[in-house]
Amino acid sequence: MPSHDRPMLALALRLAATVLFSVMLLLVKLTGERGIALPETLFWRQVIPAIGIFLWLLSRGELHRLRTKRLAVHARRALIGGSGMFLTLGVVRLLPLAEATVLGFTTPIFAVILAALVLKEKVGPWRWSAVLLGLGGVVVMAGPDQANLPVLGVVTGIAAAFMVALVTIQVRDLGRTEEPLTVVFYFSAISAPFLGLFLFRTGASHDAVGWLMLAGIGISGLFAQVAMTASLRYGTVASVMVVDYIQLGWATFWGWLIFNHLPPASTWIGAPVIISASLLIAWREHLRSKTRQNEAGPVVEPLSPKGVASSG
């Protein structure tokens, strides 16, 4: 449970996070239009938060907050999370912003599947029905016309959602002993040097606009994570998660304003189906969470559409 109950502040922070995430994805797409390689974009996305968190803690004399006895688990989380981030940012370059955003909402669907297959959790008919409903929404949104949504883009989007759901298991495990800021720091700090190796092959000189875009990706990503994490300090996942779907509105707006693209009818039909499935899963998780809490004390909250605050 959050340490302070301030629901309006929680909603405001969550709304700010959706705006910042949408800006980050917009900049990722624009850097792709400028020919900046995805590994370089990922490097700046990771190195700026790592440096920012380190300097912030250093200025406050709180570097001790980065102490950990689970470095190997952090490394494993960085490997899985880095793969997920590669796919999450990569799909933005393959699909229009709105469609890429909608596919991200399938994360809770894959979380249910993983809970059944990996955690051996008993999944009832409500959640299995939601899984089938959500997958049906993906089929509707993809449609028969690959001119709107190419198969590679759809597969990448689904794989990204799957990886975010997979990394959620890792982050929930880390959350038992580590604070969110520590998890975010090690995710960025461990993956950034590896991504930096690609700069020898893909790195290039850029004009001022290109550098500003890369810096904007790292800064907006950092503050989006901070805002999302802070929203859970003042409110529960169940109380703020509906705000996450506003990101679809921002993605549609940026797509129309910058790229002169509006989603086709198949997206407007499939998106509500996927969102409904995600909300149904969250509702059932919330009910199960309350039941377990009454029986055995505090439990982990249900997964939001974005997975977790630190999944990138």
How are the elements arranged and paired?
Elements: H1 7-33, H2 38-59, H3 71-94, H4 97-104, H5 107-117, H6 125-142, H7 151-174, H8 180-196, H9 199-202, H10 208-234, H11 237-240, H12 246-259, H13 265-296
Helix pairs in contact: 1-10, 1-12, 2-8, 2-10, 3-4, 3-7, 3-8, 4-12, 5-6, 5-7, 5-13, 6-13
Short structural summary:
The protein is mainly α. It is built from 13 helices and no strands. The protein has one domain.
Overview of this protein structure:
- The protein has 312 residues and is an all-alpha fold.
- It has one domain (7-296).
- The chain is 74% helix and 0% strand.
- The chain has 13 helices and no strands.
- Helix 3 (71-94) runs antiparallel to helix 7, helix 4 packs antiparallel against helix 12 and helix 6 packs antiparallel against helix 13.
- The chain starts with 6 loop residues before the first helix and ends in a 16-residue tail after the last helix.
- The mean pLDDT is 82.
